Inverse folding.
């Protein structure tokens, strides 16, 4: 039995059952992450957990350095985090698992939903936000919450 992951007519990969068995038996391989920005401000595919939102404005907020960010401490609505520089095609995920809503700020002149970076947007506690860079210095956001 063959498992086609992509169409071979386009130069992609087909595995037969022996290939799949060999892959499953092999030791895991560490994959190198790619950098979101030339400055190395964030690493694409990496996860940060146990984060604490801090400060009272963008200058004193926590600078995010990963693609997936789990903020577990947001003590008051004054605290916040700052997104890395917007790079098209590299969304940033932020979960607010703290006790209070928090601010999410853009980097430099980056806007979030048309809001100036220094003003930021509010991410309610218990929600996650996905910040999509759609152009240089431009994020659009999507906030979501799941309920049982």
């Amino acid at each position: 039995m063959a498992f086609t992951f992509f169409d071979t007519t386009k130069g992609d990969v087909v595995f037969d059952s022996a290939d799949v068995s060999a892959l499953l038996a092999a030791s895991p391989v560490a994959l190198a992450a790619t950098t979101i920005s030339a400055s190395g401000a964030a690493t694409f595919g990496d996860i940060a957990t146990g984060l604490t939102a801090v400060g009272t404005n963008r200058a004193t907020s926590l600078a995010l350095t990963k693609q997936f960010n789990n903020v577990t401490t947001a003590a008051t609505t004054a605290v916040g985090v700052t997104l890395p520089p917007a790079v098209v095609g590299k969304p940033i995920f932020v979960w607010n698992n703290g006790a209070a809503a928090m601010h999410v700020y853009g980097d430099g002149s980056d806007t979030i939903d048309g809001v100036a970076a220094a003003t930021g947007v509010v991410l309610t506690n218990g929600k996650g936000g996905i910040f999509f860079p759609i152009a240089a210095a431009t994020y659009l956001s999507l906030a979501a919450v799941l309920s049982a």
User: Anything to note?
Assistant: The two ends are 39 Å apart (CA to CA).
